[in-house]
Design goal:
The strands form 3 sheets. This protein has a 5-stranded mixed β-sheet with strand order 1-3-5-6-7, with helices on both faces. A 3-stranded antiparallel β-sheet has the order 8-10-9. It has a two-stranded parallel ribbon with strand order 2-4. Helices cover about 45% and strands about 25% of the residues. By secondary structure, it is of the alpha/beta class. The protein has 2 domains: about 120 residues; about 60 residues, Arc Repressor Mutant, subunit A, CATH 1.10.10. The longest helix is centred in the N-terminal third of the chain and has 16 residues.
């Protein structure tokens, strides 16, 4: 079985803010600013292939308020969870620091969403709303990097774990390759190591 190739799209939000709203500062502090950044991200995704893995980098964003977190994170995730989405897109939020965490968590909870985030130290976590089973299963996928279809019942023996895995796939916080049945951790796809 060949390796999955899903080249990530690097999106530097700090640069997008400066280009989209003509400012020298990387502050996301108004809803119109957040909307402009989200539309710029969607424009970049429009040129992507059928399946896109987007690495949304917040490391250069110095201030993130709740309205911008809602526009840039929650509305973006909702758009690509919608059955009428323009393409298959997955997201990893990178460079998440303490100044980003609270606004992101609040908007994810409000919209009942979850996303994969990479902390400043390089480790990955699942943010937002998820069940205990989903959290546990996400960690199993994260630890293994990928789980082939013939390994699912061995690594996730409980029926509720397999239900949680299907939920994680549906919520787009893991990637299921329909041709092979293999489930991939987004962190490993982002690093090109699956």
């Amino acid at each position: 079985m060949g390796e999955l190739s899903l080249p990530p799209i690097q999106i530097d939000v700090g640069s997008l803010v400066q280009r989209s709203v003509a400012t020298l500062y990387s502050h996301l502090v108004t809803r119109p600013t957040g909307r402009a950044v989200r539309l710029a991200i969607e424009s970049l995704l429009a040129d992507a292939g059928d399946i896109a893995l987007s690495l949304i980098d917040l490391s250069e964003v110095n201030v993130l308020d709740f309205s911008c977190a809602d526009e840039v994170v929650a509305k973006l995730l909702l758009r690509y969870l919608d059955p009428d989405r323009p393409r298959e897109a997955y997201f990893v939020i990178r460079g998440v620091s303490d100044i980003h965490r609270e606004p992101i968590e609040v908007v994810l909870e409000r919209q009942q969403l979850a996303t994969v985030a990479q902390r400043e130290d390089g480790t990955y976590e699942l943010l937002g709303v998820r069940s205990g089973s989903e959290d546990s299963v996400w960690r199993v996928v994260e630890t293994h990097g990928r789980i082939r279809s013939d390994e699912v019942s061995l690594l996730l023996p409980a029926p509720e774990d397999r239900t949680a895995l299907r939920g994680l796939v549906r919520r787009r916080v893991v990637f299921a390759d329909v041709s092979s049945g293999t489930v991939h951790a987004l962190s490993k796809l982002a690093a090109g190591t699956t």
